[in-house]
Fold:
Amino acid sequence: MPITHSFDYQKPGSLREALALLARKSAVALAGGTDLIGHLKEGLVSPELLVDLKGLKELKKIEHRGGALHIGALVTFAEVIDSKVIGKKLPVLAEIARKVASVGIRNRATLVGNLCSAVPCLDTGPILVAMDALVLVKGKRGSRKIPAEKWFIAPRKTARKPGELVTGISIPLPRGKAAACYLKLGRYRGEDLAQASVFVSIEQSSRGAKARNFRVAFGSVGPVPCRARKIEKALAAGGALIDMVALKKLVPAEISPITDIRASKEYRLHMCQVMLERALAAADGRLNGTGPAYGASLL
Amino acid sequence: MSGHKFIGKSVVRVDGKAKLTGAAAFVDDLEFGPGLLHAVIIESPHAYAKIRKIDFAKALDVEGVVKVVTGKEFPYRFGLYMHDRYVFAQDHVRFVGEQVAAVIARTPAVAKKAAGLVKVEYEVLKPVLDVETALKEDARLIHPELGNYHHVPWFFPKKDTNIAHFRKVRKGDAEQGFREADHVFEDTYTVPRYAHCSIETHGAIGLFDHSRRLTVWAASQSPHTQRHLFAEALAPLGLKHKDIRVIAPSVGGGFGGKAGVSMEILAAALATTVQGSPVKVHWTREQEFYNTYQRQGVVAKMRVGVKNDGTITALEQKLYWDAGAYVEYGANVVNAAGLSASGPYRIPNVHIDSVCVYTNLPPGGPYRGFGYSEFLFGLESHFNEVAKKLGIDPVEFRRKNAICTGDVLNYGGKMNPSGLLECIDKVAREIDWGKKRVSADPRKAIGKGFALFWKAPAMPPNASSTAFLKFNEDGSLNILVSAMEIGQGFLTVMAQIAAEVLSVPPEKIRVETPDTDRNPYEWQTVASHITWGTGNAVKKAAIDAREQILDIVSSALGQPRESLYLDDEQVRSRSDAGFALPLRDFVINGIMMKDGTFRGGPIIGRGMFMPEFASALSDPETSQGGKPNVHYTVGASAIEIEVDRETGKITIPKVVLGVDCGKVLNPDLLKGQVTGGMVQGLATVLYEDMRFDEKGRLLNPNFTDYKIPTALDTPEEIVSIFVEHEQPDGPFGARGVGEHTMIPAAPIIANAIEDALGIRIRSMPITAEKIALAIKDS
Structure:
């Protein structure tokens, strides 16, 4: 399908140059292009300028520093999967990346591009809001660090202002021993957009051997990723014992699923309960060294 | 039959290297130079509307636009079995996406941009979107002119209704049969629409040159039928068949979707408006979904009368088909399914109504299985329920009622050789029928499902195939046929057939895709009839060549004719062990006599096959009297599934399909058919599903929301069982098998779910969601 709209294309060599170009009216940043090119073909966007970021080497890094994982805007999902640092420090992120689209798309699509799309079904949403990740944004007037929960405003709408560029994200790493799990519900085993998803992280607390912190978030069951604080609280209060029946009753209050072509509201709600139980069991097992390997199929 | 050298062997695909290396050219690979024009179609946004006005002045102003074409240029009606469709919409549009006009421009981008500037004014009408509404007494007519439409003699349209064809089958006395029954069980099953989803979308390039010759290059299953329909539709322009040429390069999947004529007419018609310039129309994936053919949806209402011992005494099937806006091809699906909707069973009293209903949804048409997958979902699900209610094992129930060789068919003819019982027994054994397995995972339930299937080619009684066979100097040969290689391995099997007759190895035989100017006639590559029909033609061509060879060797060299035979690329003699004349020595240049003159010359074989025993003429009130089907291919299939009770997700440890193909010509290729067909069929039952909104718009014309299986979605094990009860009129005993491999997929899944969970699901698809919510509600 041809692109009928004409536009200019620039590939800046420095971040400063990129920001200057992006400050222009109707300029759009291009990284992997897996969303943007499709949108151009379908006539959904009509920018006057495409600013290709792929010349900015500094945005290509994955780094572990200051107790956090920093991932640059040009890091692709394939690179997340292959990263040794991520495999060691936050293996669940690779588990998530493996569930994004297909190999061909993952070779081009970037993690930051995914969160910029802000579609309700995005795979990176739940972990970012659950782990209190920061979105690093730069504009001509300076930098901002936006907490993930404030980043997602509505479907396809983020806290990014015109002219601003997301340069990367920073995910604070758990201090103690931790494990996590991401489950994504799809219509079949091949690549799919999430009908619903759940992220669970369990962290050994410094408050005592039995005390644990929980982080839980859902995706695709609301306009933006939903952090499930009531569930987190109930889990932390329960200590080693998890009362699944009581916990499942909290799920409807945490999410707001709708019926659409991918699933009904009823199935989404039901599956969020099922997936919460399975993700908790898997994360718990992983924490104890008995759980399924990261990436294992649990649905 | 033993002793075959090439038949029954897994000869490697003759087109394999071309496909693997990229040498094979598909329609989009063809180069036409900078003069190539591109057409983009303006489509109806409404399911039903009157066209008031088309204003394209602004489009013409765009630089690079050559022409805008509307229905005014082509006020002709045409179609395969019924003339009910148009090149472009005339006064009405009848489905969302219907072609209203085209912009022809120098680049695709210019054409697309200009197409956006064409303004069409519509008077929107309330669309008819389901069969129930369409069949109401006061329903709005979608084709008020139906009574005047030209159609084949075996269609029975009801004028002043939305019923485009009504196939009635009355065998025995159904009412009497129900009276004899100890029980009558009835139920209703529904099947939605499906898309073929070939990897390659439709595309065609037309060139109408200055000598008024029209050439169309098309991704096609039916080059000759397309030529014929182009000639019919464009006859007012003075075009003769000889002036029209269809060239069919390699094709990236058909499954029925590229049979007949759908969008290809646009390339042919548009070319005549820009004489001298080739013009290309290439469907996007979205258009591929909504403006080719779709598999029709059906509502099936059935009643079955049974004795306490499981004997079926009567069957009533009422099939209401959502055939869409134009039924020129789809009505024959309705017809074929109607004739066979009893399934492969011996039922003395049968009452079938198969009703083709116009709706304002995209045109229905041929799709692998041709209606049989649709009615077998309901029938084979229902028979399981019947067996369960009678307390009879479902396999035993089927065995008891299975059709056998010589049994009377629905239309009165006799059943051809059938290994159905052998298929049932072998499949049951392979799936360990009767043995219950319990999952190690307490959340999972295991179930097994079983179903029978049958299918006959659905085609005109005189659908013909022909072949030319040409020897070359080195004894290699080229075979010219006009069937299409659509993945099934047809080219290879034709080479094997000729190889067997002529004793020339298949590697020395080239068979390629056709050009209607050069290659002889073939009706269409559909109906699972090519191995049978074209195979017969190729075999006859090879025999023709062989006879010429033996004649010339006998007459030129004085060898006794009856002693001569072919072996290992040579002519040998049973009476003269020392005689061995290599074919390459004379098949072009002839045999030199002592005086230096030559006898013989280039050997060219010719073969033709037309079934001379078939007839579509029968009593319209009963369907008795004709012989519409050349043969039925039968089989059985079984599956074992594991269902997660919480998620509703299914995994498939094993699926088995046993089919009586008459004779296996190439085991590897046939196994490929079983694997591909089964995976395709399982997808239709597990997740594929076309969804339309209340305005008749297709909601999922893309692979984001219309899911087709990936490698991850294949069963862990697919077992093929081939039974061989030879078809007397088939090449080496073979009969059709291509479509059959997907037909039983839906009922085996439905029956396995019932076995695992005790839940009967009566509508397709049976998604994980549907299962999980049904478990929750139960």
